[in-house]
């Protein structure tokens, strides 16, 4: 059994997220109101980070949860877009109407050849080739000093709009990220419940059967790969604009692994799973790291417990509990 | 005589290094129902899968409607009018009945079958349209698997053990459905373990052993000569239950 099979078998109810989706809409409204109710700046920063990584995890889940492709190199596109926006801002323009779409486009275009080669493989080999590509991006960022700044990283110029600086304050950036996240999450949701999304689910459940229904499976896998990379690129752009800095670590394999862990902890079978996973991992990281440097150990234990005990992640546990309360069985 | 709808000649298919089909060859004429019988592991399913190109034969030729299809990608073969009803009534378990049908209908060829007509012909699927594939009974899943192939309006149906694991009553129903599809002009190639079922619906029977056709005849010939089933299937009446 391949890694993909194991993950795929964990899922049985992909679209029960509808009710959770409305809860999510309420939460976004609450987050939008929070700064007016005195949400401290450091909490805003934490929420920004959670939203950025939630988006990255959601974009990975298009591949992992819906198409059944376990990518171990998703951070590549986070890093590519993150560097692209810095390079474009330095050399072309800092106008966000230029930098943002162009940087995302760069990530999407890079995903075409990388995806084209990667989707020819499946299971463990897909995982390894995506890992290899991500390491190539990391090495390029690390070694190509004149362009990327090498191991020192790169200062990303602040965004402007028609020549005027924007998003300079924490609060304005908070609203910007919340808005971009909401739009992207809604788009991703629309994608996974569309006919295209169901085709991806069909591919996840049985690639030969989809071929035998007349589907060009590779074309769909490539499309899923590019969609995932595009939204991963949006997350990378947000990350760079927030920190005004990007370093090679953004594309490091540990970053890819962390996003994978976020999706699996949250529940790859559920649309909101990656958001739950990203939130829990980042909260753990922030809170525990002030008590102990071994916070990763706690994360590891949580991961082991969930992967062995609750294979549908926390979203799966919540759904089971909810169904149990409503007397719908296990 | 006109060219057969489907013809296989000298087909050799491998799974990795194991040689499954040995110079397999047979023809199928339009409007025929042909049943392939044989013991486990003789290459019946592989025969159907070779036609679909999963995996493609390593040598030999498969022609469909006068054109060579061996070596083409599976989705291309299917779009020329080959419909597959996989073994073990395999539908998409987490998708609903409607979604299963829609996935197939999105790749259909022009023809008389539409999703609406499917629900008329299979009222039970209509009743259970919002149920997930995995929650259907075995008989319902088999109907969904057939309906999914049907909505694509193929010219040739490849059915892999449509009676497997179903109760006698449901098997009868599936048999009636296959006859009806045939009466509407569809050509059907089916693989079966259930001898009685295959004999009752087929015009012609092919028996396979070790990856090749070893016997070809009419169902009546086989009924009249129990020796054939003894020799080629290694069964007396067991398979006829």
UniProtKB/TrEMBL annotation, chain A:
Q: Where are the transmembrane segments?
A: 16-36, 42-64, 71-92, 98-117, 124-144, 173-201, 222-246, 258-284, 296-322
Lineage, uppermost ranks: Bacteria, Pseudomonadati, Pseudomonadota, Alphaproteobacteria, Hyphomicrobiales
Keywords for this protein? Cell membrane, Membrane, Transmembrane, Transmembrane helix
Pfam family of this protein, just one?
BPD_transp_2
Q: How does it sit in the membrane?
A: Multi-pass membrane protein
- List the subcellular locations: Cell membrane
**Record protein name field:** Amino acid/amide ABC transporter membrane protein 2, HAAT family (TC 3.A.1.4.-)
The answer to keyword Aminoacyl-tRNA synthetase applying to this record is: no
UniProtKB/TrEMBL annotation, chain B:
- Keyword Magnesium on this protein? no
Q: Which SUPFAM superfamilies match?
A: P-loop containing nucleoside triphosphate hydrolases
Q: Which UniProt keywords apply?
A: Amino-acid transport, ATP-binding, Nucleotide-binding, Transport
- Write down the InterPro entries for this protein, in alphabetical order: AAA+_ATPase (IPR003593), ABC_transporter-like_ATP-bd (IPR003439), ABC_transporter-like_CS (IPR017871), BCAA_Transport_ATP-bd_LivF (IPR052156), P-loop_NTPase (IPR027417)
Which GO molecular function annotations are given, in alphabetical order?
ATP binding
Question: Which PROSITE patterns does this UniProt record tie to the protein?
Answer: ABC_TRANSPORTER_1, ABC_TRANSPORTER_2
Q: Where is the ABC transporter domain?
A: 6-235
User: Which family does the record claim for this protein?
Assistant: Belongs to the ABC transporter superfamily.
Name used for this protein in its record: Amino acid/amide ABC transporter ATP-binding protein 2, HAAT family (TC 3.A.1.4.-)
